[in-house]
Amino acid sequence: MTTYHHVLHAPRRRSRRMQRLARGGRAIVAHRDRGLRERVACLMRRDGFEVAEADDGYAVVTQLARWTLSDGRSADVVLIGPRLAGWSGLDLAAELPRTDWAPAVMLLMDAEEAGQDDVAELERRAGTPFVFRVPFEDEDLRTVALFLLRCARKQRPKEPRMSDETRPIRHRRRVELELSVHDAEPFEEIFEYADERVLQLEPHVVGAATCRVTIARSKRIRGAYEAHVKVSGPEQLIAVRRRSHTAMGALRHAFGELQMRLRRPRSGVEMRTVDPSAAGRNATREDEDAAG
User: Which helix (H) or strand (E) holds 143?
Assistant: First the structure.
């Protein structure tokens, strides 16, 4: 009789999608061996887990309660050793899945624990099928942790969708901002000012348009800056270029001129609303004057 064993090897190279799977996941690594604990915690952080380390059983329960009180979500995976101070790791591994926290549990054994004669008894008391004994492959542990995280996310209740009445209304921009800054500071202040002024100019812009802002050192005046602001759309095209000894000064001057041009009337003709009845009376009076 021949028995065939099928071995599934973990991927040695992870794609970007695999690296993004664990973002937002939480894991607790608890073991008495500091070197093993730091090694496993580093592996979990590399995949994107939020990791907390503990060296005794009371710290594990405290960390679970702290996360739950902060945002209502506990750990997804707990990697725990069988021998912990304060509270036995085997008892925690058997009891934690039955609590309201309900994390997935993985058992970690160092060389001393894995070399004992009663390893089978330890695994039976832990109550978890995911047991790793030193030496173990790092990629195998990472694959199992990601698998348990995906299972936990599927079992997690989905948040109710917001109705249209409670959903926040986002401002739809008609004028998109394109900012290009060359050798000018401070960039954060420049961007905030330009974005705020573009939003203020939107009511005066005809239709949808693009506001391109370019700030660079002036080629004509040494030490000065030049700001070029251009509003281009299917029905409107205005370009302004201003210089100043600072980048923010040139930007303020350019937007000031742009605002004046946008608010300036297109022609000298004054448009007024005329009452039709009044217009008829005026026309009749003019006809009578002409006849007389």
Answer: helix 138-155
* 226-244 CB burial, b ≥16 within 10 A, e <16: bbbbbbebeeeebebebeb
pTM: 0.50
**CB atoms near residue 60 (< 10 Å):** 25
Asked whether residue 109 falls in the same domain as residue 150, the answer is yes
Pairing of strands 209-217, 175-181: parallel
29 lies in some domain: yes
The verdict on residue 48 lying in a domain is yes
62 and 130 belong to one structural domain = yes
User: What does the alpha-carbon distance between residue 229 and residue 239 come to, in Å, rounded to a whole number?
Assistant: 6
Domain of residue 146: give its range: 22-155
- Residue 145, in any domain of the structure: yes
Q: Give, for all 292 residues of the chain, the pLDDT tens digit.
A: 333 333 334 444 454 555 566 788 999 999 999 999 999 999 999 888 999 999 999 999 999 999 998 888 899 999 999 989 888 888 899 899 888 889 999 999 998 888 776 777 777 888 888 989 988 888 889 888 988 888 888 776 655 554 544 444 445 677 888 888 888 777 778 888 888 888 888 888 888 888 999 999 988 888 899 999 999 888 888 999 999 999 999 999 999 999 888 876 554 444 344 444 554 555 455 555 545 4
Spell out the residues 6+ positions from residue 126 whose beta carbon is closer than 8 angstroms to its own. Answer: 82, 89, 90, 93, 94, 105, 107
Q: Structural domain tally of the chain?
A: 2
Say if residue 207 is in the same domain as residue 258.
Answer: yes
Which segments within the chain are labelled E, that is strand? 26-30, 50-54, 77-80, 104-109, 131-133, 175-181, 209-217, 225-232, 237-244
